[in-house]
Amino acid sequence: MKRFIWIGLLSLLSAQGMQGQHFPKMDTRNYVSDSTVFMPKKPWLAAGEVFGLNVGIWAFDRFLMNEDFAHINGHTIKNNFKTGPVWDTDKFSTNLVAHPYHGSLYFNAARSNGMNFWQSIPFAAGGSLMWEFFMENEPPSINDLMATTFGGVELGEITYRLSDLFIDDRSSGAERVGREILSGLISPVRGINRLITGEAWRHRPHKGRAYSFVPVNFIVSAGPRFLAEQEHSKHGTTSMHLSLRLDYGDPFEDEFYSPYEWFQLRAGFDFFSSQPVITQVNAIGALWGKRVWGKGPRTLTAGVFQHFDYYDSQLRSSDGDKVSPYRISEAAAVGGGLIYYKRSEPSDKVDAYGEFYVNGVALGGGSSDYFRLDERDYNMGSGYSVKAFTGLTYNKHWTFLLNMENYHIFTWKGYNPDIDLSTVDPNTFSVQGDKGHSRLTVMGIKLVYLSSKKWNISLSNRYFSRRTHYSYHDDVNRATYDLMLSLGVKI
Q1: Phi/psi of residue 421, each to 5°?
Q2: CB within 8 A of 197, min separation 6: which ones?
Q3: Dihedral of CA 282/288/292/293: which sign?
């Protein structure tokens, strides 16, 4: 369903992370606060903010933008309950990036009012339910309810913890204003709450953060990226690629860790080309973890992890048409995983790092070569994913990385191929897309030189293999690759 959420993407652009393969464990910057702030729980205020957020966005859509879907009354609300949830026809980026971000605002309304991680989840779900059933004259959306809730929880906790890194109640003047603005951009609802309560200008003899000690690794990289289909390299596209990478916490530091004491965030953006601006977002957050084995310099951690992954692409075919050779999303996914680290010693200059995950995907999406309805040109469904990352670093300077990701999404609810899609009502024609299943395999290799002065240079090559089986159409296989040269700096 359509919503006014462009302002949320600004915060996503400011979130810290990086696209690409994982680096082995690196030296991190420790964000230390001498004191944390106790936040009393205010569930009614949090609920009021969720309600106000929905009403405010609806009012903008209705009275300033005059959007058709925002013309609501008692009759439209009654029809929404009568019709029930359907699979909607919004854009790939709207359904699988923008809606999860919107859910993060609901989640942060609770987090910034004293609720813990688990207590904040019902607020994300409640905000989504309110919007879908009451704030639009279109039927509620099954995929929006799932993406906004589950994706919102993951992006919400990540943005809440990132905003915490910049809070320093000891500061004043221009520095204080800058810190509050940056924290508010990352977590807008928390920023609003700090203004309402006066925390934004209150001076204390300590930083006043929610978390006292956090090891953080943040790298920004930029450079040219060439993307092409394997058999049509001359129709490829070159863009300026911006990569962000964030490692938050240390999965080997504590014997146990609770939700999001450790997470990774990666993001990739392409400029000056036909590519989508947001080409990749990856997040892995620990819901629970435990160090299960350790011997000398070797450590193994096991846990349960929440995943959010998004890949998008666009090229021009030989006849000039725009095509998306690969697309994949897992907006609601969770599974088990293992993380291994072997640190170097004086007699051995090699660091080794590895990760392995197996996930169930409740909501995912992928490319369609046939389904076209309203703004939908992709399939949705559920399935599983498997990921493996490994890397070696020699003498703290040279790093070699390998990665493999496999996503398998099944589209269960299809449609009769004899139906003319141009004659159906997009608001009630509730299908996931073309019945079948799609597999996207991403394999990558990267060589990195890490300088002692916090900059790095890397060369990487990735291969995207999409194999889509259709129950009522011819199967489609596409092979795409990219090459990237990047110069990065650790902040």
Answers
A1: -65, -20
A2: none
A3: positive
Distances (CA, A) of 323 to 6, 109, 327, 420, 480: 25, 39, 11, 22, 12
Amino acid at 308: F
Quickly count: other Cβ atoms within 10 Å of residue 108's Cβ: 32
| DSSP calls for 161-205 | HHHHTT--TT--HHHHHHHHHHHHHHSHHHHHHHHHHTTTT---S
Which tokens hold the place of 438? 């799609």
Q: In the prediction, which pLDDT does 391 show?
A: 96
* Rounded Cα distance, 369 and 371, in Å: 6
Phi, psi at 180, each rounded to 5°: -65, -40
Q: What is the pLDDT of residue 33?
A: 53
Phi, psi for residue 62 in degrees, rounded to 5 = -80, -50
- Residue 27's identity, in one-letter code, is D
Q: Is the pLDDT of residue 430 over 60?
A: yes
Q: How far apart are CA 53 and CA 111, in angstroms?
A: 15
> Which of 235, 237, 231, 183 lies closest to 207, judged by CA?
183
Are 205 and 170 within 8 A, CB to CB? yes
In sequence order, what are the residues at sequence separation of 6 or more whose Cβ sits closer than 8 angstroms to the Cβ of residue 2?
61, 67, 69, 90, 94, 136
Task: Dihedral sign for Cα 6, 164, 15, 148, please.
Answer: negative
Nearest to 147, CA basis, from 110, 97, 189, 186: 97
Q: How far is CA 447 from CA 223, 343, 441, 463, in A?
A: 15, 19, 20, 15
7-65: per-residue pLDDT in tens?
333 333 333 333 334 445 545 555 555 555 667 899 999 999 999 999 999 999 999 99
| Residue of 260, 261, 105 whose CA lies nearest to 184 | 105
Give the whole-angstrom CA distance, residue 175 versus residue 179. 6
| Burial class of residue 350 (count of CB atoms within 10 Å of its CB; 0-12, 13-18, 19+) | middle
Q: What phi-psi label fits residue 425: left (phi over 0), alpha (psi between -120 and 50 degrees) or beta?
A: beta
Predicted confidence at residue 317, as pLDDT, reads 72
| pLDDT tens track for 205-257 | 888 898 888 889 999 999 999 999 998 888 899 999 999 999 999 988 878 88
CA-closest candidate to residue 218, choices 282, 251, 266 = 266
In 318-375, alpha helices (H)? none
- The tokens for 255 are 């014997």
Instruction: Give the H or E element holding residue 77.
Output: helix 74-83
Q: What is the predicted pLDDT for the residue at 231? A: 85
* Residue 157 pLDDT exceeds 60: yes
- Rg over alpha carbons for the chain, rounded to the nearest Å, is 23
